Amino acid sequence: MDDTARAKLADQLAARFGTAPDLPEEIPGAAVLAAMANHRTIRSYAPKPVDPRLVRLLAAVALSAPTKSDLQQADIVIVESPAQRAALADLLPDNPWAAKAPAFLVFCGNNQRQRRVHALRGHAFVNDHLDAFFNAAVDAGIVLSAFVTAAEAAGLTTTPISAIRNHPEEVAAILALPGHVFPVAGLCLGWPAHGGSISPRLPLSTFVHTDRHDSANLDAEIAEYDARRNLTRPYNARRRDDLFGAEPAYGWSEDKARQYGQPERTGWGAFVRAIGFRLD
Predict the structure, then answer these.
(1) Is 110 helix (H, G, I), strand (E, B) or coil?
(2) What is the DSSP secondary structure assignment for residue 20, as one 8-state letter?
(3) Exposure string (b/e) for 2-13, b if CB count within 10 Å is 16 or more?
(4) What CATH number is given to the structural domain containing 88?
């Protein structure tokens, strides 16, 4: 393969994980892999609309991704109505790009279709437990990821918004979601206003294991990552010093511990049960 492409891929992975894995001599599909490794965080959009036909094309490509047991339990709601878009944006004050992006979509898990199939065929739905919800949620996540990859291949940029789950009842009402259909994430879509930057991740050894899971070095890996990330992507603001104090050194681990040191989405389980799921 082209030594330049190989070096580029190695540089991108090193920027992400601190070090690059040992690359094979031949890398099939290196250009595609390099594009995926070069994923960048961009939340500013150029003032240019996205053709609705392109959005639907990307949806079709994303829905071509794998699906559990061919159950096909993901939906994409493309929000074109200005009123609906404004109503959703009002629920997301900490995500201003939800109102500013040229296009906005909501990815949903859908277990309603499977239940309807059972009714049509006259077979009891006997697997009414946590796995029914989990399968639909995973399908939606797979389609969301495939959409992001497809959008970037087309030159677009995306911003997923999990905060859509902070207000599930309101989102379900705005989008007229039926029972057993639930929002997983919103997604901003548009043409990038700048080149963005690679978001660093924990070391690759934190995520990738051989034969057996190994977290023996996790504390050291977190400390290394905190230091490395603060060199290139330090936090511009601290979460709730009034609650947690201004003394601790601030990095990724402190930020995430503070984020989940406060109640969040405490009503999510109640919402999921209210739309018909059993979670036992």
Answers:
(1) strand
(2) P
(3) eeeebebbbebb
(4) 3.40.109.10
CA distance 30 to 22: 14
Boundaries of domain holding 188: 52-195+264-274
User: Is residue 78 within 8 Å of 145, Cβ to Cβ?
Assistant: no
H-only helix segments in the chain: 3-17, 30-37, 52-62, 82-90, 97-100, 112-121, 130-153, 168-175, 204-207, 218-232, 241-244, 252-259, 268-274
Query: Which tens digits make up the pLDDT trace of 19-74?
Result: 999 999 889 988 889 999 999 989 999 999 999 999 999 999 999 999 999 999 99
User: How far is the C-alpha of 99 from the C-alpha of 86, rounded, in Å?
Assistant: 7
107, 75 in Cβ contact below 8 A?
yes
User: What is the Cα–Cα distance from 217 to 220, expressed in whole angstroms?
Assistant: 5
Task: Give phi and psi for 242, each to the nearest 5.
Answer: -65, -30
- Cα–Cα nearest to 106, from 22, 29, 186: 186
Return d(Cα 245, Cα 247) in angstroms, integer.
Answer: 6
How many beta carbons lie within 10 A of that of residue 43, not counting itself? 18
What is the model's pTM?
A: 0.95
Pair of tokens at residue 151: 């959008």
* Residue 98 placed within a domain: yes
- Residue 167 lies inside a defined structural domain of this protein: yes
User: By three-state DSSP, how is residue 48 classified?
Assistant: coil
Based on the structure, what is the number of domains in the chain? 1
33 domain residue, yes or no:
no
Say if 136 falls within a structural domain: yes
Confirm if 113 and 72 have CB atoms less than 8 A apart.
yes
Overall average pLDDT of the 112-135 stretch: 98
- Give dist(CA 109, CA 265) in Å, integer: 18
